[in-house]
Write a structure and sequence with these properties.
The protein is an alpha+beta fold. It contains one helix and four strands.
Length: 124
């Protein structure tokens, strides 16, 4: 009697089931990695925008008329094909010659800031 060698239908089905389970896990891991990479990219760009905005505020002349007054200002900047909203909050401090500046950067239509930077600005 000659025996034919090969896989039975049951063995093939078990191998396909194992392959399907492993594939689902790999696809889930890959999509999670892509999401995390996108979030890191957004945080990096938002941080750059916040630092750039804070630096531009520090580089402006600060005479008595130009010294920032307490309040909130918002502007929209496009960077990396994404619209970013930059909110600048100026607060007074105990020293009349120093202002506390908070720069918050939001991704378009987001409620929570992606990056927030706080610094101080002196008149002189």
């Amino acid at each position: 009697m000659i025996r034919v060698r090969g896989f039975t239908l049951l063995e093939v089905m078990v191998a396909l089931a194992v392959f399907a389970i492993v594939s689902v896990a790999l696809v889930g891991n890959a999509s999670s990695s892509l999401r995390q990479a996108g979030a890191i990219r957004d945080r990096t760009v938002a941080w750059w925008l916040a630092e750039n905005h804070m630096t531009s505020l520090r580089l402006q002349p600060r005479t008595e008329e130009d010294f920032p007054r307490a309040g909130t200002d918002r502007e929209v900047i496009e960077m990396g094909e994404v619209a970013w909203e930059i909110e600048t909050r100026v607060e007074t401090t105990e020293n009349d010659f120093v202002r506390r500046i908070t720069v918050a950067v939001y991704r378009e239509d987001a409620e929570d800031p992606v990056a927030e930077l706080t610094g101080f600005l002196g008149r002189h």
